[in-house]
Amino acid sequence: MSVSSLDKEMVEKLTALARQNGIDIKGGKVRRTSSRFCLGVEHGDYNGTELFGVGTDRFIWMAYKPNGTDKVRLFSGNFPGDGVIEFTLGDVPDPKSEKTAHTWGRFPYGVDYILRREGHKLTRGIDGVIYGNIPGGGMSRSASLSLNLILSLFEANNIKMEDQMDIVDLAQAVENDYIGSPCGKLDQIMILFAREGMGTYYNPGKRSVDYVSLGEKAEDFRIVVMDTGTERPGLEKSTYKIRRSECEELVSILQKGGYDISCLADIKEQKVYDKIIAQLGKSHPNLCDRLKYVFAAQRRFYEMLEAWKSGDIVTVGRIFRQDGIGLRDEYKISGPELETMCDIVRTVPGALGERMLGGGDKGASGALVRPESVDAIRKAVESGYPRSRPAFADKYAVHVCRVVDGVKVFNDLL
Ligand code: GLA
Fold first, then answer.
1. What is the pTM of this model?
2. Which of 75, 130, 190, 347 has the fewest Cβ atoms within 10 angstroms?
3. HSE toward the beta carbon, residue 354, CA cutoff 13 A
């Protein structure tokens, strides 16, 4: 198992945090979970589309060990003010309770709650320390954390899941039912299954995952994430929730009108689409705009997948950019700072495509970039972004990412 210098640095950090906070991880394991980058269809998961994405090298590391009791004791180096999160298995606050709204501890509480609800009674507690470098908003920090906690507690309790998709469902339930975030499954799938150098393709109809390698002739490229430095509140408090319900509303209007669909992704034929726009364009312009994005992005998805397979990264980038414009103008889920980043990056030759990432409003934008243009992009952001968005001049960051495995376990570093 290859251990990078960053992994070693993190293990040292975690060891120091454990010592300072009276957490015993000696002889334990380190589980590292990645972030993710979606290439399509962004906002397609809860609309029923196929999905494609990769794992990226911003991570959450958790060093942990069973502690021989039925208590969980965890400390996060990202939220030191929350202190040690300590609870007895099976005894956690109620879902969505005010008591837990402002602590990261709601994630481990939620994991215990959901696993128990789903019949996996945990009896062996752990001591653990966590640290992550995934920026908030756009790269799936919360899914990475939920998965890390579930996998680590399963392992400590000797619980094995046959179908990995069940783990995705559990992690989603932690966010939907305990935290109260209305997220879909995209993030969990793209992290849990991610493989170095591969794209992950998900078919919702079959609940299946396949790996698609980038065509051999592909020119080299980089994934660049531009963190705007803004803070994105939970999805339950954002435009995300509104978009979800708008899409559901449109589906229900169409069902009542006799269309045989269960989600917007079921509208695949041009004829059907044209008929809907003709019928509802005037009375429901906003709902039709949401459909316009989903319909067009779903069509582009297949083109993008073919381009990926043949190594045509220029086309992948072009589609990524088109998706971004649809997300901005039709789905209306982007935000001013996210678009400032895109507008800056777009001016640099060698930027193949750029758009907002993930849930929307705030957080991070992303770009596909030729390697030789990375420096120019960085410089453009460094001069343009603070001028446009002075309030975030000290907070923004540019991350150049590699495609990596979603989950790695290091057995003998502690
Ligand atoms: C967030 C959600 C995902 C997905 C994306 C948008 O990351 O958690 O389920 O809907 O937004 O593609």
1. 0.97
2. 347
3. 25
